[in-house]
What we know:
Elements: H1 5-15, E1 21-26, E2 29-34, E3 37-43, E4 46-49, E5 64-65, E6 74-77, H2 83-96
Amino acid sequence: MASNADFVQYIADQCSGAGEIVVRKMFGDYGIYCDGKIFGLICDNGFYLKPTDAVRPMLREVALRPPYDGAKDYFYITDIDDRDYLSALVRETCKALPEPRPKKKK
């Protein structure tokens, strides 16, 4: 089951305090990026954040689950209505993630 467009836009809006948020369709659901860095997934109307040690103590609830069958566990974020909280999680996650590799020219 794919996520509906309204939910995807709501998550993007809620995370917008962290930087430039872009959502890209991937494999039937969505990858979510901040300032060019992928930090999470939106799958089946759920918001999943890449797990990092820096963010774990910030979580109000630590729930790990895979966003889709065969995936590694991500933080499953249920408290999506607090914009400041989500933006802080996204900022800290992105700080902890490596810079994206430059794309190879074709």
